[in-house]
Amino acid sequence: MPAESLHDVAARLTTSTEALAALGAALRLKASGQDAPSQVQACLDEVAEALGVGGALASASPDELGRALAPIRALFLQSVDLLTDPTRAPGWTYTDVELLESLGQNSAVFAEIVRDVLAPELEGLANALAGPDGAFLDVGVGVAALSIAMCRVFPGLRAVGIDPLEVALELARRNVAAAGLDNRIELRRQAVEELEDESAFELAFLAGPFLGSAVIDVACQRVHAALRPGGWVLFGMYRGAEPLENALADLRTARSGGAVLDAPEAERRLANAGFVDVRTFAAELGIPSMLVVGQRVPS
Q1: Distances from the Cα of 8 to the Cαs of 11, 18, 76, 245, 272, in angstroms?
Q2: Domain hosting residue 30, numbered range
Q3: What is the pLDDT of residues 234-251, one digit of tens each?
Q4: Does the first or last residue of the chain, that is N or C, have fewer Cβ atoms within 10 Å of its Cβ?
């Protein structure tokens, strides 16, 4: 069979792109309690039925709507940036509030993954997070969605979130206050290279897609020192199950200024920083990401 032409590939992908945009619009309208103009709304309903999600959309809770909408919004906003300015230098320079909030909501899912997938598998983690002195370090806190979700999933946990981007921290402060968690979440304008905490946390999350090659080793070392003996680090990375998904994940990472790593290389970086029991969770997570984990040697 002859290879598809560029035109054929573009035409084939257009339908999926339009369908995703239509689903995102339907989710947004449902979440806001609004309707589009009647003819447009009827067409959106028709698309939802054709996708087989009409019933699910009608009965979805606000949390379900938000969880489904966040990755679609983030995807399209980042895609517009890529399409309109593919020559810009790599780095995390976004100031668009909707994009920052959408990406933040994407990260919140890791709180349930910690509770349901990782805590049963990682030595001592469940008890540490549930204990009276449990503490979580969120490196690349963004709008604080993950820290807020962690504090809700683990009611006794306190969190420290660091990020060098002031526009994200402004949103984070607002979100933490709205969640009523000012007394449990500390936010700092700080790069991970400047982290000086020692033996202070049970768990740390490192947002891998935003760590450049020159920063990763220092970040791993700083986080290792910041963890208490027996504490765990989660190095988060975009990842898919198919070659195209992985190529797109690498592209998102590169555009964000992060180092493009595979799991073995990420494991090696953690091991070099002194972490033990280093391993990777991917398919178990149920999302297009992977977590490379490692433990500071227990005392």
Answers
A1: 5, 16, 22, 19, 46
A2: 6-65
A3: 999 998 888 999 999 999
A4: N
